[in-house]
Design a protein that fits this description.
By secondary structure, the chain is mostly helical. 43% of the residues lie in helices and 8% in strands. The chain folds into three domains: 40 residues, no CATH class; 87 residues, Winged helix-like DNA-binding domain superfamily/Winged helix DNA-binding domain (Arc Repressor Mutant, subunit A); 74 residues, Arc Repressor Mutant, subunit A (Orthogonal Bundle). It is built from ten helices and four strands.
């Protein structure tokens, strides 16, 4: 009977271990075995000891059954200056998706809890956030994230629709960075100062010189293409850095993303995903 119970426990532990990342499955299996053996058989059956080296996970959060406390091992590795667009996102779901994306793409961490996302927003980006708000926002976005429950805690993973949503998020704000001159109101004139007004109007004709101003994001990207910048693949933050540091134009990633997408659709640029899962743009 004990032998049969032990087989059931081993099978159950193996199934539970499959729900965590591959590099943590061995540690999770032994942890679950300890728990199940302790509950089912007490001290009569001891789990077989196996000498092994502790598997060190890559940078990121450990979502095994023994460590679901929201510890942020990637917090110090995140460079908040690489993601200025997150400060301009008004919705909790937008900020949450961005944190899930940067954790997966830049820090090899696929999946975070609402508590961990909140901790990153508050302690790294200094954005006031509440865990309950983040949890509800992600729960309502079932079309953009995948949710897994491990030991009573929900772990959220960004899906392809969520990636596409982030990429097109700034499309509605594309033209907002280009300033437009305000219309000059015509001053009311009385009979006594009509002559003065006419004289001022006459002097003003032809005196205004056209100002080149700042180019729109699409025009700025076209200029980079013409200069050979995209002869080698470039990621979006490299485009932003080139425009800001060498061309003197500051555009957020949210504004550049739809402009780059238009260039891809116009066949002036092409894009491919690199090994890290990020888009790289190059001359078509």
């Amino acid at each position: 009977m004990r032998k049969k119970n032990l087989k059931v426990i081993i099978a159950e532990a193996a199934e539970i271990a499959k729900t965590v990342p591959e590099n943590l499955q061995e540690a999770a299996f032994h942890r679950v075995m300890d728990e199940l053996l302790g509950k089912s058989l007490g001290s009569k059956i001891e789990a077989p000891e196996k000498k092994r080296e502790a598997t060190k996970p890559k940078r990121g959060f450990s979502h095994n059954p023994a460590n679901l406390d929201g510890t942020l091992s990637i917090l110090n590795d995140i460079d908040s200056t690489k993601y200025p667009e997150i400060q301009k996102m008004p919705k909790a779901i937008d900020k949450s998706l961005k944190v899930l994306q940067l954790a997966r793409v830049d820090h090899e961490t696929d999946g975070l809890t609402a508590k961990e996302i909140t901790n990153i927003l508050v302690n790294k980006f200094r954005i006031p956030s509440k865990e309950n708000t983040i949890q509800k926002a992600l729960a309502r976005a079932a079309d953009k994230v995948n949710r897994k429950n491990i030991n009573g805690k929900d772990i959220f993973h960004i899906m392809a629709p969520g990636e596409a949503y982030l990429e097109n998020l700034g499309q509605n704000n594309e033209g907002q960075t280009v300033s437009r001159p305000k219309a000059i109101k015509k001053a009311k004139t009385s009979k006594n100062n009509k002559g003065t007004a006419k004289k001022a109007k006459k002097e003003g004709v032809g005196s205004k010189k056209p100002s080149p101003g700042r180019p729109g994001p699409k025009e700025a990207i076209d200029n980079l293409t013409a200069s050979g910048f995209f002869d080698s693949p470039k990621m979006i933050f490299e485009v932003s850095t080139e425009l800001q540091q060498r061309r003197g134009y500051s555009y957020s990633v949210q504004v550049l993303s739809p402009a780059l997408l238009r260039c891809v659709r116009n066949s002036t640029l092409k894009r491919d995903r690199n090994a890290g899962g990020q888009y790289e743009y190059s001359k078509a």
